Amino acid sequence: MGAPGRLQLVTKGIRLPLEIFKTPGGTKGWGVRCSELIPSGSFICEYAGLLLSEEEAVRPASADYVTC
Q: How far is residue 38's CA from residue 1's CA, in Å, rounded to a whole number?
């Protein structure tokens, strides 16, 4: 059997100990790091969402958004 397809990899979820962190000094924004070595060619994760500025991330929810 061949290599697993992209959909199979995504549906299995994150298998690595990933950490989201703010870069030192905050000059480059946010980053993702792993506490383990990642083998070459490994699936890491997929992010499908909005990229927000610092101001957008900290401002209170507005009428633009519906929360449940």
A: 24
* Cα–Cα distance measured from residue 39 to residue 44, given in angstroms and rounded to the nearest whole number: 10
Query: Are 38 and 44 spatial neighbours (Cβ–Cβ below 8 Å)?
Result: yes
Residues in the chain: 68
pLDDT score at 45:
81
Q: Does the model's pTM come out above 0.70? A: no
3 state SS of 22: strand
pLDDT, one tens digit per residue, over 32-66 is 899 999 999 888 887 777 887 878 877 776 555 55
Q: How far apart are CA 33 and CA 16, in angstroms?
A: 10
Let me know: does 42 contact 12? Beta carbons within 8 Å. no
**Residue 22, beta-bridge partner list:** 30
